[in-house]
TrEMBL record, chain A:
Name of the featured protein: ABC transport system permease protein
Record-linked Pfam families: FtsX
Domain ABC3 transporter permease C-terminal: 254-365, 646-758
Top-rank taxon: Bacteria
TM annotation in the entry: 21-45, 247-271, 300-321, 341-361, 416-434, 645-666, 695-724, 736-756
Organism from which the protein derives: Cytobacillus eiseniae
Keywords, comma-separated and alphabetical: Cell membrane, Membrane, Transmembrane, Transmembrane helix
Automatic annotation (TrEMBL), chain B:
InterPro entries: AAA+_ATPase, ABC_transporter-like_ATP-bd, ABC_transporter-like_CS, MacB-like_ATP-bd, P-loop_NTPase
Keywords: ATP-binding, Nucleotide-binding, Transport
Family per similarity comment: Belongs to the ABC transporter superfamily.
Lineage start: Bacteria, Bacillati, Bacillota, Bacilli, Bacillales
Ranges of residues in domain ABC transporter: 5-244
UniProt protein name: ABC transport system ATP-binding protein
GO molecular function term, any single one: ATP binding
């Protein structure tokens, strides 16, 4: 009997059944995909880091190094399992020429290494430890992905020639967000090119027990060892590896939640409409003594079939897209060990979608309990009472055209039904606006101020060289005499000892200079202006347990100085652990200098950058736009793509759902339509009424959706962004697209969909519906 | 006498092939301005179909319907709707009202579509009409909050709101008890004496006896016709006798 009822029901409502199935399939597909991707990504990262034996603790260091003292420390420290110091030959990117193109425009710190002996191996694309011969060079896999290099290309460094033998996976520096990239050459070749650049040291440790990393880090700092460079630990490496694909998974998961929500809305709308239609029958069934659970089963059966078909279909579809989405993970990290587990998780994901649908249908069907048999038989229809609608009278209406009035009135009178459509439109607006705002925000120039970088036109880095202060002063003199430079500042980073709460000392890098010229975004407080003030990066503030207004003791030139925390800002540079202060200091060594400059005419940026690059070859000079594109380039372009995709998806959803709802409404409203036609309303009047309903709901939807996008959406996007190290976050909204173009797109889609959806109203015959 | 409706030989059928049946089988009727016509006939004889055809609500297969000289089958949907809204009024057996609107809004709906500016005037007129049919105090009520007879009176107000030339009534008193039915007939008669033509479908001889002309339908044809003088409230028994005799003769 169920079979027959289900078949009849489905054949009577093919369109809505199909749409609901499609949404369930899409939801199941996305959930399955994200389950599979999560398992694969974490598996791939684990196996990459296991094969490569990634260091647990890395201290980068430039300048003199005392290896004997380090070795001594490693042997005495009980946590250390293995220890090594690797060399990293930093060569000016302009001197690296791949296939006749130099890497001059590349903002990564490109450098050369030899294969290490104990751990931190560089792997080939099959996951094996590379054995490199003389004359060969292995290039970071990122340059394969972006097409910079291919196997067989000639690489020239100064005068030395290499042939690209393959590509390497670097468990430390794979990610674009890790600012250095290692090329692999043989020991002999390394010795030959050693004079072309400056050597930096990677002081690496593997511990017996990874959980002791905090204790070890403290021990390293208090031992007063080499610290002239960023410190990175195992968890951060892991995060860097996970971030870009992790973001993609997060987006897929978010979209799947929305699709599930839309599937729910479809189901709710159909069920409510069906219950309204069947109201009298349900009453009769109750009256003749059928149990509510029996009646529920009749309705539930159909959705069990739809949900089963949809989720199975979605699971099957996920196999189609899996390869495509796993491609990046496979390239950068290799095959995961647990791909069979991934399938199991995929199945679990699919089952979750299925169960969620069934649970939701059951919940909607709870309404049956409220139906009174007597009322159902007497009135035959659900009496929806809404106070607001009652006061809204045609006889008092002077403002709206009658058709518009009737449309709006209907929406007010049947809020429950239209709430469903509203929810879908709110979701669509949300999906359109949030990625758009996000993309607009991260491609806006001011975004870098969230990342701890001042908003300027040119950034000049002086590091890994000697006489930094003299060289910096030379550049500053030039800038001062350059009339195209409107303002500039010099920020010098030095390392100081800070006293922690428990009396121990910790090294902290402080950027000294005037921070008011190119301010960064402070999540709390403000920039330091007085000599006894200091601003901390979010991660530092967190680790030191400081809030704005707290005191802090620094050891400067052997004396203890009291400073007050004036502000906290986000930072992604240098492992996120930085500080800013204005006090003058001549005691400590300069680690590096950064000079920011703003041009009076922005369009000169490219010319100026190359002019200065030629003049000061010891400094790294980058236009900020370039800096942004190369640091966040792939993120911006994937967010851009995602936002275009989101707009298309949202518009398709809007059109589909609107057509569907309109068709259903027309089917339900046959009688009132016939009545209106009998009393002289034309087909275009009816159409106008339905358009008014749709547009009225849409306007509320757009307002709500935009509001939600700018509040909840901002929080969500902020959560994503904060995984980069930024802590305070505000959308940079482009009002033209967000408040004009997007609503216009929505309105035109809804209008087109309404015209299509209500075309059936013209065919409704008066005589067939007003039967005498 | 000027004729407002002229039907010439209209035919209409439903169904296809073997199932095909002529529901209107060459019907010709003329209705004069201000005339009070009723149609009687057994169930399924085509009375409602004729009324839908005459008012342009349904298409016909062949023949011609003219309303005030305009051939309805040549008019577009919009023009037909305009005529129905401005020149015709309808009262059906079941109250055909929109659930969303209250009684007053339902009444003014057809008229306010064109004259939103004069909403105050239209509302005033509706109040007068409602007063006249005895439902003056119900204007704010929902359509589910009044009785069937009250709803039917509201329906008459709606039919009258745009001063139509003719009112069509398809068994407007069919769902009412005889006391309410007579009251409704009193109202309709009064409207008729004020100059509006009325075309009424009814099964009730007592109702039909109050009209000027009775058309008897059988199997899609008008089989007989009966004429009276305008009803003045006196000779109802006599007229009824004649009608029932005719009905018996025709086997209705
Ligand atoms: N849409 C339709 N499709 C098929 N047949 C129809 C349709 N509408 C009416 N009919 C048939 O046409 C015939 C005439 O119907 P109509 O409604 O005009 O009868 P009627 O005289 O008004 O009857 P009643 O007194 O019962 O209201 C009936 O036999 C009916 O079955
Ligand atoms: Mg009939």
């Amino acid at each position: 009997m169920y079979y027959k009822i289900i078949r009849n029901d489905i054949s009577k409502s093919k369109l809505i059944t199909l749409t609901t199935t499609i949404f369930i399939a899409a939801a199941a597909m996305l959930v399955t995909l994200s389950a599979i991707l999560v398992v694969n990504l974490s598996g791939a990262i684990d196996s990459l880091m296991k094969q490569a034996k990634t260091p647990h603790f890395l201290q980068m260091h430039s300048g003199d190094i005392d290896t004997v003292r380090l070795k001594d420390f490693a042997e005495k420290n009980s946590h250390v399992d293995e220890f090594q110091v690797l060399e990293f030959l930093n060569i000016d990117s302009a001197k690296i020429v791949i296939d006749r193109n130099s890497l001059a425009d590349n903002v990564q710190d490109n450098g050369f290494s030899t294969q290490s002996e104990k751990f931190d191996y560089l792997l080939d694309l099959d996951g094996n430890i590379i054995n490199v011969s003389d004359g060969e060079i292995y290039v970071p896999v990122g340059y394969f992905k972006d097409g910079t290099a291919k196997v067989g290309d000639k690489v020239v460094i100064d005068e030395k020639k290499f042939t690209v033998a393959g590509f390497l996976r670097d468990s430390q520096m794979n990610s674009l967000l890790a600012s250095s990239k290692r090329f692999l050459v043989s020991e002999n070749d390394y010795a030959e090119i050693k004079d072309y650049g400056s050597t930096e040291y990677l002081i690496e440790f593997r511990l017996k027990d990874l959980s002791e990393i905090g204790t070890f880090e403290a021990a390293y700092t208090s031992a007063g060892l080499e610290v002239n460079g960023p410190t990175i630990t195992y968890p951060l490496f892991k995060m860097l590896n996970a971030i870009s694909d992790g973001l993609m998974i997060a987006v897929i998961l978010l979209v799947s939640v929305l699709v599930v929500a839309i599937a729910f809305m479809c189901i709710r709308f159909t069920l409510l409409a069906k219950i309204e239609d069947d109201y009298r029958e349900i009453g009769v069934m109750k009256a003749i003594g059928l149990r509510v659970s029996d009646i529920k089963k009749l309705y539930l059966a159909k959705y069990t079939v739809i949900a089963a078909v949809g989720s199975t279909l979605g699971f099957a579809l996920s196999f189609l897209f899996r390869g495509m989405l796993l491609e990046n993970i496979r390239l950068y990290m290799g095959e995961s060990e647990n791909s069979s587990i991934a399938i199991i998780f995929g199945i679990i994901g699919m089952l979750l979608v299925f169960l969620a649908i069934i649970a939701y249908v059951s919940k909607v069907l709870k309404r049956f309990r409220k139906i009174s048999a007597a009322e159902a038989i007497r009135f035959g229809a659900l009496q929806e009472k809404s106070a607001g609608a009652k006061r809204f009278c045609l006889s008092r209406n002077r403002l709206l055209h009658t058709n518009i009035f009737l449309g709006v009135k209907d929406v007010l009178a049947r809020k429950g039904l239209y709430a469903t459509m509203l929810a879908v439109l709110v979701i669509s607006t949300f999906i359109i606006i949030v990625p758009q705002n996000l993309s607009n925000t991260i491609s806006s120039k001011s975004f870098i101020t969230y990342m701890g970088i001042g908003n300027s036109d040119i950034r000049i880095d002086i590091q890994q060289t000697d006489h930094i202060s003299k060289k910096a002063a030379e550049i500053i003199r030039t800038l001062e005499h350059d009339s195209t430079i409107s303002k500039h500042t010099l920020l010098t980073t030095k390392s100081f000892k800070a006293k922690t709460e428990n009396g121990s000392e910790e090294r902290i890098k402080i950027e000294l200079g005037d921070h008011s010229i190119f301010p960064v975004e402070y999540s709390k407080g403000r920039a330091p202006v007085k000599e006894d003030e200091i601003a901390l990066s979010a991660i530092n503030a967190d680790e030191l347990g400081k809030k704005v207004g707290d005191g802090m003791t620094l050891v400067i030139d052997g004396k203890e100085n009291k400073l007050t925390v004036s502000g906290i800002y986000s930072d992604i540079s240098n492992g996120g652990k930085t500080a800013k202060a204005v006090f003058p200091d001549h005691s400590a060594d300069i680690m590096w200098c950064v000079i920011y400059a703003k041009l009076s005419d922005k369009s000169l940026a490219a010319d100026k950058t190359s002019e200065y690059a030629n003049k000061f070859n010891f400094a790294k000079i980058s236009g900020i736009d370039e800096y942004i594109t190369q640091t966040f380039g792939s993120t911006i372009s994937s967010v851009d793509k995602a936002s275009t995709a989101a707009i298309i998806i949202a518009l398709i959803i809007t059109i589909l759902i609107t057509i569907l709802f309109m068709k259903l409404l027309i089917a339900k409203d046959r009688y009132p339509i016939a009545v209106m036609k009998a009393f002289g309303f034309t087909n275009s009047d009816i159409m106008a009424q339905y358009m008014s309903r749709a547009v009225f709901v849409l306007i509320i939807g757009i307002i709500l959706g935009t509001f939600l996008a700018n509040t909840l959406g901002e929080v969500l996007a902020g959560a994503v962004i904060s995984s980069f190290g930024a802590s305070s976050f505000h959308f940079a909204v482009n009002p033209l697209t967000a408040y004009l173009l997007s609503p216009l797109m929505m309105i035109s889609s809804v209008l087109i969909a309404t015209i299509i959806g209500t075309s059936g109203a013209g065919k409704i015959k008066i005589s067939e519906h007003i039967k005498e | 006498m000027k004729k407002i409706i002229i039907c010439e030989h209209i035919e209409k059928s439903f169904g296809e092939g073997n199932e095909k049946r002529n529901v209107l089988d060459g019907v010709s009727v003329e209705i004069n301005e201000g005339e009070f016509v009723s149609i009687m006939g057994p169930s399924g004889s085509g009375k409602s179909t004729l009324m839908y055809a005459v008012s342009g609500m349904d298409s016909i297969d062949s023949g011609k319907v003219s309303f005030e000289g305009k051939n309805l089958s040549t008019l577009r949907e919009k023009e037909l709707a305009d005529i129905r809204r401005t020149e015709m009024g309808f009262v059906f057996q079941q109250p055909t009202m929109l659930k969303n609107l209250n009684i007053l809004d339902n009444i003014i709906l057809p008229s306010i579509r064109d004259n939103r500016k004069s909403a105050t005037k239209i509302t005033e007129k509706a109040r007068v009409l409602m007063e006249k049919v005895g439902i003056g105090e119900l204007e704010k009520r929902d359509i589910t909050q009044v009785s069937g007879g009250q709803l039917q009176r509201a329906g008459i107000c709606r039919a009258l709101i745009s001063n139509p030339k003719i009112i069509f009534g398809d068994e407007p008193t069919g769902a009412l008890n005889s006391k309410s039915a007579q009251e409704i007939m009193d109202i309709i008669s009064e409207i008729n004496t004020e100059g509006t033509a009325v075309m009424l479908v009814t099964h009730d001889a007592k109702i039909a006896a109050r009209t000027e002309r009775i058309l008897f339908m059988c199997d899609g044809k008008i089989v007989s016709e009966m004429r009276f003088k305008k009803y003045n409230g006196s000779d109802i028994d006599d007229r009824m006798k004649k009608v029932t005799a005719k009905m018996r003769e025709l086997g209705i």
